[in-house]
User: What shape does this take?
Amino acid sequence: MEAIKDYNKSELIDGVIYDMSPANIRHIRIQGHLFTIINNFLAGKKCKAFFEAEAVLSERDHLIPDISIVCDDSKIKDSYIDGAPDFVAEILSPSTRKRDITVKKDIYERSGVKEYWVISPKDEAIEVYRLNEHGSFYLDNVYTRFTESEWERLREEEKAEQNLSLKISLYDDLEIQLDDIFAE
Assistant: This one.
């Protein structure tokens, strides 16, 4: 038995339509873990989490982030987000990797997304970009999940420098463990 080949999910990037391939199972699991953690935390709070909701950022840019958070209810329409989410996470896949770390990152920055996470399933790492007061992204940190053997090989000073959990800048009290995001 084979998967269905006709898959209709696309993004408009700088006026060009890009069809998207279905995500692999690892991507879906990471997306599900992170969305569940964020969504559970936001229950009863002002901000809302979204799973693959289209964000209309401009007439020429309609993106579908893997996960987004929107804190302004007026941006939430029936079938899309009108304007920049406050937070976006994209999970890299072989077919979208280059666009996610270049073109889409630039669009999110230009649109005013406050925080952008680039999640690499292959490296089990997350790059966190935050918007500075000048409207530019800066790399805040890179978080990497270590195997037991990799962790054991680190010197104590190196272990002390590592962060095994991270926070979304919107909430100081939401601490997310890397192991929970990349769990099998």
Observations:
- The mean pLDDT is 91.
- The two ends are 25 Å apart (CA to CA).
- The first helix runs from residue 25 to 42.
